[in-house]
Amino acid sequence: MDIRRIRNFSIIAHIDHGKSTLADRMLLSCGAITQREFRNQILDDMDLEREMGITIKANRCTLNYDYAGSKEENKKFEDGVYVLNLLDTPGHVDFHYEVSRALAACEGVLLLVDAAQGIEAQTLANAYKAIEAGLEIIPVINKVDLPSARPEDIALELEQILDLPAENAIFASAKTGIGIDDVLQAIVERIPSPVGDGDAPLKALIYDAKADVHRGVVCHLRIIDGVIRKGDKVRLMAAGRTYQVNDLGVFTPKITSRPQLSSGEVGYFFAGIKTVHDVNIGDTVTVESRPCDSPLPGYQSPQQMVFCDFYPGPGTTSPDLRVAMEELWLNDSSFNFSPVSSAALGTGFRCGFLGLLHMKIIQERLERESEIDVVQTAPTVGFEVVMKDNIVRIIESPAELPEAGEIEEIREPYVQAEIVVPSKFIGNVMKLSEDRRGIYKRTDYLSTERVVLIYEFPLAEVIYDYFDRLKSVTSGYATMDYEMIGFRQDDLIKLNILVNGTPVDALGVIVHRSRAEPRGRKLIQRLRKEIERHLFDVPIQAAIGNRVIARETIKALRKDVTAKCYGGDVTRKRKLLEKQKEGKKRMKQVANVSIPQSAFMAVLDTSD
Questions:
Q1: Which of 40, 230, 437, 546 is the most buried (most CB within 10 A)?
Q2: pTM of this structure
Q3: What is the pLDDT of residues 151-194, one digit of tens each?
Q4: Omega within 30 of 0 (cis) for the link into 253
Q5: Shortest CA distance to 476 belongs to which of 521, 422, 437?
Q6: Once rounded to an integer, what is the mean pLDDT over residues 538-548?
Q7: How confident is the model at residue 141 (pLDDT cuts 50, 70, 90)?
């Protein structure tokens, strides 16, 4: 394949601005699918993606586009078939790692903006990622068929904020097909072809992978230099292992075998790789007999921001859970896990995620794809603890926090948030942000009616329900993006929860001292509603160290043991009541309190 006829590009945008719909329309226009096969979200192959209406995994497809230049100045591009390698990316902030991996395999992007909603938080975040990567950006104003569309205004906003000339923006409607030919033509004319040497030793980047039940691990790769052929013995340079390629090809979007892939192309290969740990996302593939000089830089490891524990539920064993998590980790290496044990829940895994939605998606995929039951504890964020001897420890759970006498200071993670909001809601957003310990930095104006508020927040104040509250106080118009900026010291303490006199590590939280008492009272009031009544009184206490700051009691279920005494001396009833009282004392000494899953999740609720 002539490398000059290859274009590798991604579609980036804010969530719900029409990325998947545009990808569907491009597949139809290029003949990759027929009108009969056409359906919404055709590249989203997970049931979960279709149910939630969002893209979770970046998907890819190779399109053949028959280009015919319409302008004299574009005759430098020869008419004929061009190969367009499309990577459709997620829009939600929790999946920014998928976006960064897709951008590393491209030379250009389509920056999609809703013609009615305009520039949103993730629009800016993804555009800045593309600019940092040095990619060619083609602005596409989508949904111009809507009655409320204002494409000219949006194009001017893009020019003002991102310095993208308004006249270069393409007006389109992925739903109706308006402007799709202009988009395809712009891809050929504006996005540069890949740079690579087809005669050099093979150097290819593994940008994704997935476990196949029958054929082992399928590796998705972008060829930088050289050629890979069926039968080649290839080496994964980071893993240090050699395999023989038994199949390779491209996605059209179905798997389509090819005898070889050359420099600039995007495709897949099978090589009988059986275990998920033999593949690292970002690894370099080369031919064993003629290796390249040095590996590619790969990817920077994603930074997990939210942590919680997964334990096997009813009918699931710990080994079953480990196997399922290893297979899922191969397909989504942006989460990690390590063994952990609990006296109440047994052996499980401490997991790290990019955000709360990411955590929810991982749990759903474990239960659906591997058919296992998972018990999940309440999520928390990671903290830095400086010990008295100046050693800095990272803790991912309140249970790991050392004794107060050993700690010099506790640092919590901070993020910088960009909140895009109509100007009439500025007051509401500022009040909400101050309530969550936000630090105001500045205000940038997108237009006379829309602004970007820049705040710095403790991550713990953002990840739980801040976004939901933000939508509530702005009538659903605000959008937000955030990035990690480091750790800062503050007056933080551990709030312990005791159930029936026993501390429950999974219910403990690290909070700011000024909020410990009201948070503790609200938490145990919720736990009282979640934990069922037992045959004895169950006290629930919130404590800081040895000091109890709040208490609630779940009253015992009482059996009427005197029902059969319908007459006679009162001492008969008193004797039965005393016997019941002694029995409850013995029961309380040996009994365990059953804590349901909903009680662990009650820790999340910070609303009044």
A1: 437
A2: 0.70
A3: 998 999 888 888 889 888 999 998 888 889 999 999 999 999 98
A4: yes
A5: 422
A6: 85
A7: very high
Strand residue runs (E) in 364-449:
374-376, 383-387, 392-395, 407-422, 439-445
Q: How many helices (H) and strands (E) does the chain have?
A: 14, 31
Looking from the CA of 90 toward its CB, the CA atoms found within 13 Å total 22
**What is the dotted CATH code of the domain comprising 384-490?**
3.30.70.240
Superfamily holding 493-604: Elongation factor 4, C-terminal domain (3.30.70.2570)
β 170-171/136-142 pair status: parallel
pLDDT tens profile 446-499: 878 888 899 999 888 887 678 778 888 888 788 887 888 889 888 888 888 888
| Cα separation, 303 vs 248, whole angstroms | 32
What is the C-alpha separation between 14 and 542, in angstroms, rounded? 41
For residue 589, what pLDDT is reported?
46
Asked: is 203-287 a CATH 2.40.30.10 domain? The reply is yes
Quote the CA–CA distance of 52 and 186 in Å, as a whole number: 31
Q: What tokens does 245 get?
A: 């390629």
CATH of span 306-379: 3.30.70.870
Task: Return the CATH architecture of domain 3-190.
Answer: 3-Layer(aba) Sandwich (3.40)
Q: Which long-range contacts (CB under 8 A, 24 or more apart) does 30-39 make?
A: 30/63, 30/64, 30/65, 30/84, 30/184, 31/64, 32/61, 32/63, 32/64, 32/252, 32/253, 33/253
Cα–Cα distances in angstroms (integers) from residue 390 to residues 387, 410, 492, in the given order: 5, 12, 18
